[in-house]
Amino acid sequence: GGSKGWAGGITWADWSELTPIKGISQILGHTPKPEVRENHSVSSKNFCIDCNGTVFGIIRDGVFSAVRGQ
Q: What is the pLDDT of residue 10?
């Protein structure tokens, strides 16, 4: 992991390593794929929006939306 190092930082993880945290929703990247990925648990919603720069996120009134750019 990490761009120049053999390991990423303490807050860096691939999408496959995500462990949902009760009560904390997360929006992350660092794992590019063409589609947005979601991982929901009873008390959190987690999204990976690393789509090679084609998607951005909006949070409005506490609701997250992934938007694909042009």
A: 74
Per-residue b or e along 9-37, where b marks 16 or more CB atoms closer than 10 Å to that residue's CB: eeeebebeeeebeeeebeebeeeeeeebb
User: Checking DSSP bridges between strand 45-48 and strand 55-60, what pairing results, if any?
Assistant: unpaired
pLDDT-based confidence at 3, cuts 50/70/90? low
Rounded Cα–Cα distance for residues 45 and 48 (Å): 10
Predicted TM-score of the model (pTM) = 0.78
Let me know: does 41 contact 62? Beta carbons within 8 Å.
no
Question: d(Cα 20, Cα 26) in Å, to the nearest integer?
Answer: 8
Sort strands 37-40 and 45-48 into parallel, antiparallel or unpaired: antiparallel
Amino acid at 53: G
